[in-house]
Amino acid sequence: MSHRLLPAVRILASTAVLAANLFTLPVAAQPAGVTRTDLQRHDLSAPGREAVQVRVDLAPGVAFGRHTHPGEEIIYVLSGAIEYAIEGKPPVTLKAGDVLFIPSGTVHAAKNVGTETASELATYIVAKDKPLLTLAK
């Protein structure tokens, strides 16, 4: 291989490894029994904001721990029964067809309290330059 091409190949290989790590980090951080399927992501007319839709499936008894989002989350429960614990409020259990609004930066958690897989459609209106999800302490 040419001495001139070797630095370029190294840079491309490093970039590929970094990209692979960035794409797999959110999956690795998910608890077992949680499946997040990205459905769509689009820029909004509000500068620096984007809309993201994700389907979240929770196996029976599985919980997704306390976390926040850098914008609003609008939830539509597709199936099952999910208990949402929103900081400062009593827990609420929603079933298929129910909706929930979670304000920006609010700490919350979700748990499948039913006997079948529970699913939600989560729509986020968030800042583009921040992680979609941050685990709370």
UniProtKB/TrEMBL annotation:
Record has Ribonucleoprotein as a keyword: no
Keywords tagged on the record: Signal
Signal peptide: 1-19
Top-level lineage group: Bacteria
CDD domains attached to this UniProt entry: cupin_BLL4011-like (cd02235)
Entry-linked InterPro entries: Cupin_2, RmlC-like_jellyroll, RmlC_Cupin_sf
Pfam families listed in its UniProt record: Cupin_2 (PF07883)
Domain Cupin type-2: 55-121
PANTHER family from the UniProt entry: CUPIN DOMAIN PROTEIN (AFU_ORTHOLOGUE AFUA_3G13620)
Protein name: Bll4011 protein
Organism: Bradyrhizobium diazoefficiens (strain JCM 10833 / BCRC 13528 / IAM 13628 / NBRC 14792 / USDA 110)
Taxon lineage: Bacteria, Pseudomonadati, Pseudomonadota, Alphaproteobacteria, Hyphomicrobiales
